[in-house]
Amino acid sequence: MVLENQPILKSMKNRLMADLASEGTLLVNFDAIVNPSQPNYIAMIAGSLMGVHTDLDYDVEGRNLVDLMEEKGVTWKSYQEQYPGQCNPDTEINRYRRKHNPFISFNDIRNNATRCAKIVNSAELYNDIEQNTLPQYMFYTPDMDNNGHDTGLDYAAVWTNHFIRDLLNRTGFLNRTLVVVTFDEGVRGHNSIYTLLLGDTVKPGHVDHTHYTHYSLLRTVEDNFNLSSLGRGDATAVPISQQNFRTGRYLAPDRFVRPVSAVASVCVFAAVVGGVALALRWRQKRIFYQRAMLKSSDTQVLPF
Known about the structure:
The protein has ten helices and 16 strands. The chain is of the alpha/beta class. The protein has a single domain (2-293), classed as 3-Layer(aba) Sandwich (Alkaline Phosphatase, subunit A), CATH 3.40.720. Helix 3 (37-46) runs parallel beside helix 9. It is globular and about 45 Å long. The protein starts with a strand and ends in an 11-residue tail after the last strand.
């Protein structure tokens, strides 16, 4: 789950976010790529800014994560709150914002009806859970209220906790699932962001000091599904350490060139104080990545 515009020290000021962090592994040295928001979203699935430097609409030409997944038969969806579907390219629709939906910016997704149909309203997530039809990779973006962009950190923290805990308590959802909560960016000059791993394979109450970026999450997805590389920032990025998982592995071992994990799918959620979410699922087993970014003007020392 991706929230927006808070450095990690300010995010940890919020007690709900701090309490949530105690239940998983907190990546305390995780950096966004740049400011403002949209370039980070593009980077999450492209391994590069792709010439995107503002929050304006861009039509991006180039390979991306969807190309890699479809080459290996990995199913995916992007769940967007208040998005009407039907490949709508509009900048603003109610509380939905295109800048927090990186998939719609890529020409080979937006102009391909089959691919574009996989960018759906967020309500489909619950239908897919109930019908046991979740894709292997899921990307979820809250609207401008729920992600905290227009409402602030306290509002986003309450929504995030309710949303995450509801999902984690759903029967069968958490089986070998990795959840990642992160922010799109911090603030200028302080781009270290709160990034949390949750799930039944993740070590609780653990802290990882390894330096990671958004490219690291992309690289981890590639490794998890034995995908090719885009040959950009993902190629040299450090993947999430296997030491953060109970088994010392986070991937389905029969699916990868090198052993990495016991988790079979990946899911990323984005809440926008700027955010998006994406999730990957493999053979009914999911790794859930959540990214949450929250706004706050206060700071405090991390309670770890």
